[in-house]
Structure formats: structure tokens, C-alpha cells
Write a structure and sequence with these properties.
Blueprint (H helix, E strand, L loop, with lengths): L1 H89 L2 H7 L1 H22 L45
Helix pairs in contact: 2-3
């Protein structure tokens, strides 16, 4: 009978060890499955973060290039503004207006026409549109070479202002 008790005791120990091994195996497999799923999610997150970082770097490089281009354009505009200031300081428009008003009017109209053509060209137009009659040079004035030679247009571009005739 002692043998039977020892056999039952040994069988109970073997059963307990077998159940413990099965429990350990099942929980380990569960953990492995969860960790595998988490690892896959982390890999996707890393790929997304890497792609976002690459896009941000490319965007930053593009913005840097655009910033340099804008800086160069700003410097050119500042130089142009400085040259205009220098030219205006050299001109005495009051004296010119008093001595030869018709010539000044012609030069101003020609310069205005040139500026409007440049604005039209810069904003997508062809710059070839004739200037309106109210902006034409006075026939008696020598005018500017920058003025429009085609005086056929009656287009006022919505403005009804006419040039004053100073004599």
C-alpha cells in the first residue's frame, strides 16, 4: 500500500509539473503573440515617422532655397530702390515743371506707360496693350522714348481722368 501511495504521490508531482509546463508554454506563446503584434505596430510607426522626417527635411531644404532666392530678390529690389532714390535726388521736378511743363508731362506719361506695361508683364500679361488716350504724350512735347508710339486706343481702363494741358 505504501507503494500505491508513493505511486500516487509521484503521479501527482509529475501531473503538477506537466500542468505547470503546459501553463508556462501557453502563457509564453500568448506573450510572444502580443509582443509580435506590438513589434509590427512599432515598425509601422517607425516607418511613418521616418517618412515624415524625410518629408520635413526635403521641405526644409526647399524652403531654404526659396528663402535664398527671396533674399537675392530683396537685395535687388533694395538696390533698385536706392538707384531710384539717387535719380530722384538728382532731378528737380519743380524746376522742370516751371520751365518746360509739356516736356515733363510727356516724360511722366511715357514713364507711367512703361511701368504699367511692366506690371502687366509681371502679372501674366503680354505687356503689349496700348496705353489709353488720357495717358498719351502731348504732341507739342518731345516726350520720352519709353512712351507708347501707338496712339490709336481709346481704352481708358475704367478711368475717365484726362491729362491737363499746361501751356
Amino acid at each position: 500500500m505504501l507503494r500505491i501511495y508513493i505511486l500516487i504521490f509521484v503521479m501527482a508531482i509529475i501531473g503538477t509539473v506537466a500542468y505547470g509546463a503546459k501553463y508556462y508554454y501557453d502563457t509564453t506563446q500568448n506573450k510572444i503573440a502580443i509582443l509580435t503584434e506590438n513589434n509590427a505596430q512599432l515598425e509601422v510607426a517607425v516607418q511613418t515617422a521616418s517618412a515624415s522626417l524625410d518629408a520635413a527635411i526635403k521641405n526644409q531644404e526647399k524652403l531654404g532655397a526659396l528663402n535664398k532666392s527671396l533674399q537675392v530678390d530683396l537685395q535687388k529690389a533694395e538696390q533698385y530702390g536706392d538707384s531710384l532714390r539717387d535719380k530722384l535726388q538728382q532731378l528737380n521736378l519743380v524746376k522742370d515743371a516751371l520751365t518746360d511743363a509739356k516736356d515733363l508731362e510727356g516724360r511722366m506719361n511715357g514713364a507711367t506707360a512703361k511701368i504699367w506695361r511692366e506690371i502687366t508683364t509681371d502679372t501674366g500679361g503680354d505687356g503689349g496693350r496700348p496705353i489709353p488716350n488720357w495717358l498719351q504724350q502731348s504732341k507739342a512735347a518731345s516726350g520720352s522714348k519709353d512712351g507708347d508710339q501707338n496712339r490709336e486706343s481709346n481704352d481708358t481702363d475704367g478711368s475717365t481722368t484726362e491729362a491737363s494741358t499746361t501751356e
